[in-house]
Amino acid sequence: MWNPRLPTRRAAPRFRRGNLFPVVLIIILFFSLSSLFLTRKGLDEDDRETPHRVPDKVFPHKILTMKPQIPEQISEQDLWVTPSSFGLHPCTKPTSRYEVSHVSDHFLTVKSNGGLNQMRTGISDMVAVARIMNATLVIPQLDRRSFWKDTSTFSEIFDEEYFIEALKRDVRVVKALPKELESVPHARKHFTSWASVGYYEEMSHLWNQYQVIHVAKSDSRLANNDLPLDIQRLRCRALYHALRFSPPIEILGKKLVERLRDRGGQYIALHLRYEKDMLSFTGCTYGLTEAESEELRKMRESTSHWKIKKINSTEQRLEGYCPLTPNEVGIFLRALGYPARTLIYIASGEIYGGHARLLELSSRFQNLVFKETLATKEELEALRDHASQAAAIDYIISVESDVFVASYSGNMARAVEGHRRFLGHRKTINPDRKGLVNILDKLESGKLSEGTSFAHAIREMHANRQGAPRKRRGPSAGIKGRARFRTEESFYENPYPECICRRNRNG
Ligand SMILES: *[C@@H]1O[C@H](CO)[C@@H](O)[C@H](O)[C@H]1NC(C)=O
Ligand SMILES: *[C@@H]1O[C@H](CO)[C@@H](O)[C@H](O)[C@H]1NC(C)=O
Fold it and tell me: Which ligand is nearest to the CA of 104?
């Protein structure tokens, strides 16, 4: 398990399988049906790296609602209880067909790209790719480009020794390329995105000519779906077991979680993705001053790796492509029934607009906690100028929280959501940004007021968005060719069914 030292607060519900099986079947059927209608769209953080992505507006935003019974009064229980896992549990063991890896004198070197979570999932994919290609994996180089504000090496962020040891039956991992291979010619490859096993088997012909293949970028190089079960499980073993953070990060993360527990017991982790780069990149200026909007526009125009320059903020927001503002998040959480005293940990970098903008949230929730208020001076000093290490701390606190909410669906939000599903479907509230904007605008224009029926509408809208078990969503209907891969739910956002099973099945 990813962090066995943290106390587990959730007792797995016990049902007798005989009674529950038909219910589970109906629920699974329901969710697989509704998945046909649910799509995730919009600009993504990944676009820093794959700038040709544009929001596709082909599909109507249709959501099947189950017409759940929404009570007028919300109990403490409703606010914090984890959705039932129906006896589902993590399963990452290989099948009986799986063979222990053999030593290979073919080497894969990898340059991992992106922010912390893009690198983590990319590295996990590279473990699987090394397995498929029968290669020895050299510990990946991390992205140290300036906009990620971190020059940490692999071993400063991850537990390198553990990574090597944990994967030894799957893939041989070495710290560095053997000296004698440094000067031989390397094949330099940009592997295609969302590739299949067949693609990498084909690429194995490169071994006839080269002993070393250098992979120039690691994000999204492997398909989400239609891969052998053993490859999917290997991805889970890599991400959730082998790739744990380095001891100093794990220890600090655990300490901060304990301090939060001491303050109030239960807490929400809010990934408030309201940072300057994100707003500039998505072109979202709702609620900002003219001067701020202008500053963001200039930043976008001068950032060469962001390809989309002209963005209509109004349209962007109405489509649900904008991060929720601190004000919107405040209204949202209050409507869901969280009282003003709720302890909320803010997982994020610097909020654009600073203290003044944050007041829009803190006026509704007085118990906001930041790394800066939770950690000591010395602890913070260790994270200074190490954005990825700080992000790792946020990640740990978010995975361990009672409730996780993200204001925007980026790499971090998706990775945390997937990890929480894996660990037992911990409550993860996924805001329906398009629906919310629609209803919030009615509030702003005075057509609605923040009363009972408003809250009821918001709770109804989110009754099925709390992290309950469901299978990973496939591609949007009607999209042909490679474009469909972009519309699939990411493997690491929801590793069900491959890595989450019913009890006593394939361990
Ligand atoms: C990897 O090695 C196994 C066992 O030796 C072999 O069956 C398989 O074809 C190899 N795969 C590739 C892509 O070379
Ligand atoms: C942006 O889109 C909205 C809604 O479609 C429209 O009313 C507005 O005029 C557009 N603004 C600009 C600057 O094009």
Answer: 1
